[in-house]
């Protein structure tokens, strides 16, 4: 009787032993490539939550996000196969401002890519119309125009649904944050599902830029 050699799967918290031939085939090249393509389109390495709103992303989440250790190894396999991808980051510091949300970072990078040099893009600006007592996620300013503030609803969809039960607890704070602009200052809100669909993301950002130039 022939026995298959086994190797401990270090990415499984249960320490299950699987045949080497199965372990080698677990990470499907087409799924590694698809994740890489989504990353290039969105300009960030998306989280599992972001993948839920990306074409073909749910299949990746259901296969590789059943275990935190497994997800980390999946990301490692993607990086090994596609070393040109954006770095894996928990947060990014830009000009002294920390962006800890990948959804916000995707919007920021798209704004940088699309906005003309005549527009001034700011991170976490204080809201002048509120006597500088509150901050927005971003703002665009064109000389001779009013400042257009940008809020990224990273846990709420454009249909008004929270992405999870845990995210629902943030809902009152998000609503309060957006209500403060009513009758006070111009604002554009971009939702998580819009950010995670590259075509919609690009269209929304271009609309925001056009409004900033005419507000």
Work out the strand percent. 15-25%
How many discrete domains?
Answer: 2
Biggest sheet: strand arrangement:
5-6-7-8
Number of helices: 10
Structural class computed from helices and strand pairing: alpha+beta
Number of beta strands: 8
Largest sheet: 4 strands, mixed
Question: Could you say which overall geometry the principal axes of the C-alpha atoms support?
Answer: elongated
Q: Please state the CA-atom Rg, rounded to the nearest Å.
A: 21 Å
CATH class of the largest domain: Alpha Beta
Topology order in helix (H) and strand (E) letters: EEHHHHHEEHEEEHHEHH
Write down the CATH topology of the largest domain: Endonuclease, Chain A
Q: Would you write up a description of this structure?
A:
This protein is of the alpha+beta class and 215 residues long. The protein has 2 domains: 6-81, no CATH class; 92-212, Endonuclease, Chain A (3-Layer(aba) Sandwich), CATH 3.40.960. The protein has helices spanning 20-25, 29-42, 48-51, 57-64, 68-81, 102-114, 165-168, 171-179, 192-195, 198-212; strands at residues 6-8, 17-19, 92-94, 97-99, 119-123, 138-142, 148-153, 187-191. The strands form 3 sheets. Strands 5-6-7-8 form a 4-stranded mixed beta sheet. Helix 2 packs across helix 5 (68-81) and helix 6 (102-114) packs across helix 10 (198-212).
